[in-house]
Design a protein that fits this description.
The chain is globular and about 55 Å long. With about 280 residues, it is of the alpha/beta class. The protein is about 35% helix and about 15% strand.
């Protein structure tokens, strides 16, 4: 199984292959645990591949017979200051996936301390208002709706997020702040727009876009030769929508989507959510 990222082919690893690779890294480095950053540095395998098989990084580490790194004792102030530094480095309030690439601590640590990502942002806003009121992106943080539940008596713990009913007004994806696109796509049209913004960066020359299947005809640069080859592209918000829409895999060379959620997909997939992480602003 392969997927396309930046015009290249990427290997998809099985659960057992990932565990074997992690054990090999630990043995080579002589440690009882391996951090995510060490993993990526030593193997070149993205953490998204790991999370396709394991719920958390510590689950992955313990499944390989190693010792999980307990960071539950890190002070909240330290975590929130690290998050501020990451937002400054990335240049705004953006998606969890993007900002945590620049952060000293990972998703599991913030989940343990604060709850879901909206709750993390809510807590971060309160911290920034008190400790860094001149924070450049303060206005982009949620102002209400994610108040912590302190009923357990544990100060600062967060357990529940209120559920809000849509008011039928325009809705937006999470903050993305990528070039001219303020929010992440929430539908196929957003995928088409974003692909148009980055097509040349990813090695594509678009010949035309239509409303029939497949949606787009383009040429892309072949990595080894530098030659161009013709590709038929279908846009989907999620790759699995391709199957749900009843499309014929034989009629399409590439699915371009925001979220790749179909591991057994018989068609090559370009997940824009991952691809733009490799592009400059």
């Amino acid at each position: 199984m392969t997927t396309a990222i930046l015009g290249q082919m990427k290997t998809t690893y099985s659960r057992d292959a990932l565990l074997a690779e992690l054990a090999s890294v630990a043995q080579r480095l002589g440690g009882r645990s391996v951090s995510r950053r060490t993993w990526v540095r030593e193997t070149g395998i993205t953490t998204s591949q790991v999370y396709g098989h394991f719920g958390t990084w510590n689950e992955f580490v313990t499944a390989a017979g190693l010792v999980a790194d307990d960071r539950s004792r890190i002070p909240d102030d330290e975590l929130l200051a690290a998050l501020r530094d990451a937002f400054v480095q990335v240049g705004g309030i953006t998606t969890k996936r993007r900002v945590l690439k620049f952060c000293r601590y990972g998703n599991e640590v913030y989940n343990t301390h604060f709850g879901s990502w909206p709750q993390v942002l809510w807590r971060f806003r309160g911290w920034a208002e008190e400790n860094d009121p001149d924070f450049t992106y303060l206005a982009d943080l949620p102002q209400d709706g994610f108040a912590p539940d302190l009923s357990t008596g544990t100060e600062g713990s967060v357990h529940a997020t209120p559920s809000w009913t849509s008011n039928a007004k325009t809705q937006y994806g999470p903050f993305l702040n990528f070039r001219g696109l303020r929010h992440a796509p929430i539908n196929e049209q957003g995928v088409v727009l974003l692909f148009g913004m980055v097509a040349s960066d990813l090695g594509f020359a678009v010949e035309g876009v239509g409303t029939g299947f497949p949606d787009c005809e383009a040429k892309r640069t072949v990595s080894k030769t530098g030659h161009l080859e013709r590709v038929q592209i279908e846009f989907e918000f999620r790759s699995r929508n391709f199957r749900d829409h009843g499309h014929d895999p034989a009629g399409c060379d590439l699915i371009v989507c925001w979220v790749h959620n179909w591991p057994e997909c018989p068609v090559e997939v370009l997940e824009l959510r991952s691809a733009i992480d490799c592009l400059s602003e």
